[in-house]
Amino acid sequence: APVPEESLSLAGRTVLISAGGTREELDPVRFLGNWSTGRQGYAFARAAVARGAVVTLVAANTELPDPAGAKVVRVVSARDMDAAMLAEAPGADVIVMTAAVADFRPVVRAEAKIKKDGALPPPIELTENPDILAGLSRRRAERGPAGQVIVGFAAETDPSLDAARSKLARKGCDLLVLNRVGDGEGFGAADNEWVVLAADGGATPVPRRSKDALAEVVLSLAAARLS
Ligand code: CTP
Ligand code: CA
């Protein structure tokens, strides 16, 4: 499908966006985390506000100024984000999961700071976090005929679209924004770096673009799916 050229309006629509990277605490001063800055999610928030949407941004550990006109909900861990997204989701017309969610968290969060005592450190035992995106899709299905467009993100090294296609199916979302990463082997031109896959089989290649421009393309694809 061609990328819609015009900025499809989101006036009167509600858009829910996650951004940043979750942190999973080990003790009161330490965590497992990732390097996500949240910039892509903030770009979505600005773009959605500009199209007239009511915007909620669930932000994990970002250091960016609040986007003007958006409600910002701050969270730390994947479980915090899961609760915030599930609470906001029922009223949302469009949901965009840009956040880097930790797949695992420590089984135990120590109450006091972990000390070294001369012996080898104990291994950190991990358990799996909830899959927020899959949960949002499941909840939507339970509510019955949709009227809600759910968008996920993925970075894959597989030069074919197979891994992303199966991820899209597993997550149950409508659009998966795929970033093809790797050393370029088999990837062809940088033009193929981004592809928006649709659950109905569509694939829209997006030439290398800024985070703002990518947000515009994806919002147009999402808005076109709203009845
Ligand atoms: N995601 C989520 N909850 C998780 C993990 C991921 O909602 N616990 C979301 C991300 O925000 C992203 C999408 O799912 O929109 C894909 O994330 P990714 O890490 O690529 O998928 P995973 O299912 O975690 O698979 P992988 O083993 O490849 O990391
Ligand atoms: Ca993951």
Report on this structure.
The chain has five helices and twelve strands. The longest helix is centred in the last third of the chain and has 15 residues. It is globular, with a radius of gyration of 18 Å. Cytidine-5'-triphosphate (CTP) binds next to helix 3, strand 9 and helix 4.
Helix content: 25-40%
Average pLDDT taken over every residue: 92
- Give the helices and strands as they follow along the chain: EEEHEEHEEEHEHEEEH
Strand order of the largest sheet: 5-4-1-6-9-10-11-12
| Rg, alpha carbons | 18 Å
Unreliable spans: 185-189
Structural class: alpha/beta
Quaternary: single chain
Q: How far is it from the N-terminal to the C-terminal residue, by CA?
A: 17 Å
What is the overall number of helices? 5
Q: Ligands in the structure?
A: cytidine-5'-triphosphate, calcium ion
Main beta sheet strand tally, sense and closure: 8 strands, mixed
- The best one-word shape is globular
Write down how many β-strands occur, each being a DSSP E stretch of 2 or more residues.
12
Strand content: 25-35%
Family: In the C-terminal section; belongs to the PPC synthetase family.
EC number: 4.1.1.36, 6.3.2.5
GO molecular function: FMN binding; metal ion binding; phosphopantothenate--cysteine ligase activity; phosphopantothenoylcysteine decarboxylase activity
Domain DNA/pantothenate metabolism flavoprotein C-terminal: 10-222
